[in-house]
């Protein structure tokens, strides 16, 4: 079996020869550390594709492929993006910068974390109609047809699974407005709130329809949201269900029509109260199931929703900074979950800088031997 056949067998509760060892990429700082330690060459690091890790280096570690790392996606975000602009230089070396999505952020020198948001260009109907609505119109330039043609030629011989990016129903909007901004908009201007969501969903549908009509065969679809934190969602679950649920249903029906029956959503944090919306509207695979401080796991979800809920993720990436004993304990914890079927372990986010190369390689080796 190849990895494409394996993921379909696992997610459809069929027999398979072995479990693929899957990753979700790594931090830039992790890559730089491993370059300095001599595990990855500078040429490999500089030749990486976008935000994806160097494929050959991940293969040397023992990973088979990355979930959502090497797929295809149309551009469903604002286009063109805004010109990055330094607004103010501060005495401590920090800078106020307007980013490509119209958000003013505070960039601290040598900081690797997400910068603090100070202001947002998108605030009201005037800024929406002037700056954002024109940038959210469909055109075929949003789609890389040359790449699609290459994928179509490869599809009869391709052994690695190919994911299709399915956009975001509210996560991208949260990025443009900020958490407080999107929350106030729902209360202050519900009509505009609906219009923004509907505009983004319509653009996504048109892009996906155009991509799928080319005949390229995808193995799974993957939405992105990131609308939860450690205590729960950043949007009221009932509002999410009412405003976004119908759009999910429309898109998953389109995916199913084109033979895609594995549909995942990438959402960090404590997602439990949003799962009903996803499950009821055709999203059947949770990813990356962050273990976090709240000990997320597919186990209680499986008890509640049954075998219709599947998962990729749920492996505590923090053990990579510990030792072999911690890695072994984590694999032992995952074993009964794997045996239930419909679940592929994957580090529950990108591998962080504290990870030791030898621990990650040991994890991959033990996973291959255990499963």
How would you describe this structure in keywords?
371 residues; alpha/beta; TIM Barrel; 2 domains; six-stranded parallel sheet; four-stranded antiparallel sheet; 14 helices; 41% helix; globular
How would you explain this protein's 3D organization?
This protein has 371 residues and is of the alpha/beta class. The protein has two domains: 3-79 and 124-370, TIM Barrel, CATH 3.20.20; 83-120, no CATH class. 41% of the residues lie in helices and 14% in strands. It has helices at residues 3-11, 28-36, 42-46, 55-61, 125-132, 145-154, 171-177, 179-188, 190-212, 237-257, 275-280, 298-305, 324-339, 357-370; strands spanning 22-23, 65-66, 85-89, 95-98, 103-107, 116-120, 163-165, 220-224, 228-229, 232-233, 263-266, 285-287, 310-315, 343-347. The strands form four sheets. It has a six-stranded parallel beta sheet with strand order 7-8-11-12-13-14, with helices on both faces. Strands 3-4-5-6 form a four-stranded antiparallel beta sheet, with helices on one face. Strands 1-2 form a two-stranded parallel ribbon. A hairpin with a 5-residue loop joins strand 3 and strand 4. Helix 7 crosses helix 8 and helix 9 (190-212) runs parallel beside helix 10 (237-257). The relative contact order is 0.13.
């Amino acid at each position: 079996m190849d990895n494409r056949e394996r993921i379909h067998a696992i997610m459809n509760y069929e027999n398979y020869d072995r479990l693929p060892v899957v990753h979700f990429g790594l931090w830039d700082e992790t890559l730089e550390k491993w370059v300095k330690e001599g595990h990855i060459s500078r040429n490999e690091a500089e030749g990486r594709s976008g935000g994806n890790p160097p494929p050959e280096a991940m293969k040397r570690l023992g990973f088979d492929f990355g979930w959502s790392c090497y797929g295809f996606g149309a551009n469903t975000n604002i286009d063109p993006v805004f010109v990055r602009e330094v607004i103010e230089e501060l005495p401590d070396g920090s800078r106020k910068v307007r980013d490509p999505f119209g958000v003013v952020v505070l960039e601290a020198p040598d900081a690797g974390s997400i910068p603090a948001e100070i202001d947002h260009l998108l605030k009201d109907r005037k800024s929406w109609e002037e700056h954002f609505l024109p940038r959210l119109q469909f055109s075929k330039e949003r789609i890389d047809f040359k790449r699609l043609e290459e994928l179509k030629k490869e599809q009869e011989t391709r052994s690695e699974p190919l994911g299709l990016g399915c956009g975001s129903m509210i996560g991208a909007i949260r990025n443009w407005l900020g958490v407080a901004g999107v929350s106030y908009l729902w209360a202050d201007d519900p009509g505009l709130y609906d219009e923004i969501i509907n505009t983004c969903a319509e653009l996504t549908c048109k892009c996906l329809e155009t991509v799928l009509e080319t005949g390229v065969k995808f193995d799974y679809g993957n939405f992105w949201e990131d609308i939860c934190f450690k205590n729960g969602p950043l949007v009221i679950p009932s509002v999410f269900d009412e405003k976004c649920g119908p759009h999910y249903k429309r898109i998953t029906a389109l995916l199913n029509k084109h033979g895609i029956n594995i549909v995942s959503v990438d959402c960090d944090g404590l997602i439990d109260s949003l799962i009903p919306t996803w499950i009821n509207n055709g999203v059947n695979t949770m990813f990356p199931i962050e273990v976090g401080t709240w000990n997320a796991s597919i186990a209680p979800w499986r008890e509640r929703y049954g075998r219709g809920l599947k998962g990729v993720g749920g492996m505590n990436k923090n053990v990579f900074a510990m030792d072999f004993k911690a890695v072994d304990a984590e694999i032992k914890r995952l074993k009964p979950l794997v045996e239930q079927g419909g679940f592929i372990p994957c580090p529950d986010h990108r591998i962080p800088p504290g990870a030791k190369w030898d621990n990650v390689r040991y994890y991959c080796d033990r996973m291959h031997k255990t499963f």
